[in-house]
Amino acid sequence: MFNSLNAQPVDKIMALMQMYREDPRDNKIDLGVGVYKNAQGVTPVMRAVKAAEKVLWDIESTKSYTGLAGDPAYSNALSGLVLGDAKDNTRLSMAAQPGGTGAIHQAVELIKMANPGATIWLSAPTWPNHPSIIKHLGMTMAEYRYFDNATRAVDFDGMIEDLKGVKAGDAVLLHGCCHNPTGANLNFEQWKEVAALLEAKGAIPFIDIAYQGFGDGLEEDVAGVRLIAQAVPEVMIAASCSKNFGIYRERTGLLMTLSANADQAGITQQNLTHLNRQNFSFPPDHGARLVTMILEDDGLKADWMAELEEVRLGMLSLRQQLADELRSRTNSDRFGFIAEHRGMFSRLGATPEQVEKMRVDYGIYMVGDSRLNIAGLNKDTVPVLAEAIVAAGV
Ligand code: LMR
């Protein structure tokens, strides 16, 4: 049987991680996979997570199953963090998922169950796993223009023009904040325009929010998500706690849907629970429990927010340092966009050959489309990267 299997394409981010591991150079710099690293190159366990784990070790009395949709306390706590005042419990259905990827996968399955003929629209470019999951599930996809390679900012006119082509019942995947891979984000006025257009078209916003707190702040980063949740009757939101709680390997995600009314929300909930049962029965609980404990305890929450803010400000300062360094080396402002982008990533606009030259000559690893992970830098490696960018002729 297995001899009928075809070889699978390698995920380019995973392949890059492997190449980096195999590079023997001591001075290599990993700007590849989207994992936060501090100035010492360590991905730390956050203080509040450690504290919650200690308490959990003491108080946890069973590891028996939770519910098929996970622990409702977790869904309530995390949906509160994402949706805030825009949380409408009457329309909300939720199911815990194994990470943000799990939530995206489940959302695509839900679209397939509800409307197999739907087209799922993706920003050009987007996180490579988006099209890969959609293709794997046999759904149709289309692209809308998003990033302007010349300005390294959002091509908003192109985006709106392309989204005018969506049909009722199509889903439009939007990055809630900190666009991956470009770092270029919609402003609030642009979110309003997108919300109005999708509402008028009868299309469903499908929001991937994996970096809340990494851009402009915990509240600021979800302003667009909340606006959409209030403006559009049916919405899907895939949230991840991997990055903002630093619990990558615990696989902690949540799929939220807003239905048009409470009756429909009940049926949607049954479908979300059914999908969990078919795919893995019960979602992982350890990370979800830690997130719940942190969000429900004022002290832990304050400490988590303070550490997250340190992470965010650290990335902003590295962005500024890199933009300044490039300004002085090139005597121009053409890399000013690095300080304007938000989140972990920026798309530099280098060619694959230039990216390869930086890897070979300097041991700098970034994704082939020239996405670089700002959090892979520290103040000593910023000048090395700036030198490499100039030497590669970017
Ligand atoms: C990334 O974009 O690098 C991260 O989201 C990690 C991943 O799974 O690709």
Automatic annotation (TrEMBL):
<keyword id="KW-0032">Aminotransferase</keyword>
<keyword id="KW-0808">Transferase</keyword>
<dbReference type="Pfam" id="PF00155">
    <property type="entry name" value="Aminotran_1_2"/>
</dbReference>
<comment type="similarity">
    <text>Belongs to the class-I pyridoxal-phosphate-dependent aminotransferase family.</text>
</comment>
<dbReference type="InterPro" id="IPR015421">
    <property type="entry name" value="PyrdxlP-dep_Trfase_major"/>
</dbReference>
<dbReference type="InterPro" id="IPR004839">
    <property type="entry name" value="Aminotransferase_I/II_large"/>
</dbReference>
<dbReference type="GO" id="GO:0008483">
    <property type="term" value="F:transaminase activity"/>
</dbReference>
<protein>
    <submittedName>
        <fullName>Aspartate/tyrosine/aromatic aminotransferase</fullName>
    </submittedName>
</protein>
<dbReference type="InterPro" id="IPR000796">
    <property type="entry name" value="Asp_trans"/>
</dbReference>
<feature type="domain" description="Aminotransferase class I/classII large">
    <location>
        <begin position="27"/>
        <end position="389"/>
    </location>
</feature>
<dbReference type="InterPro" id="IPR015424">
    <property type="entry name" value="PyrdxlP-dep_Trfase"/>
</dbReference>
<comment type="subunit">
    <text>Homodimer.</text>
</comment>
<keyword id="KW-0663">Pyridoxal phosphate</keyword>
<dbReference type="InterPro" id="IPR015422">
    <property type="entry name" value="PyrdxlP-dep_Trfase_small"/>
</dbReference>
